[in-house]
Predict the structure of Sulfotransferase.
Amino acid sequence: MCRNPFDQFISHWKFLQNIAQEQNVQPISFEEAFELFCKGIHSFGPSSEHVLGYWKASLDNPRKILFFKYEDVKEDTSFHVNKLADFLGCPFSDVEKSRGVIEEIVKLCSFDNMKHLEVNKTGRIRGSGAKNSNFFRKGKVGDWTNYFTPSMSERMNKLMEEKFSGSDLTFKMS
C-alpha cells in the first residue's frame, strides 16, 4: 500500500518528530525534512522509486502483487477488503457477505479501532523501543494542506510529475 507523497511526507516527518522527542534529541525542522525528501533522502530510501517499483511490478504480475493506494482504501474500505480476500484466494461467500463479515472486518481494522487498542497505546517496538503509538496519528487524507506552503506544493507537484511521468500512477490529494 502506498500513500500520496504529500501526506506520506507529513506522516513520516511527524513520526520522526515523535521519535526525536522520545530520545531527547533535536528534531529535524519541517523545511529541512522537506528538502531532504525532495532530494530522495528518506529513512527507507527514495520513496518515489520504491512506490514506482511496486506499481510497475503489480502491473506486470497482478496475480502476485496487489497494489493499493491508501486514499482509495479510505474511500471504499469494504471494496478493498473484498478485493484483498479474492487476491489471497479466500473470497467471501455470499453467506458471509450477507451476514456482514466484510463490514465487521472493516470495523475491526479501522484506523480508530487500531489506534485505541491497548497494545498500540502503551506498547513498544522490540529492539528500537519506539512507542507503537508513534505509528498512529490522524489517518486522514489531505492533512498535508495544513503544512505545505504554496511553493512547497508546487515543488512537490513538479517532483511527482517528474518521478511518475509515463507510469499512469496517480494520487488523490484530498
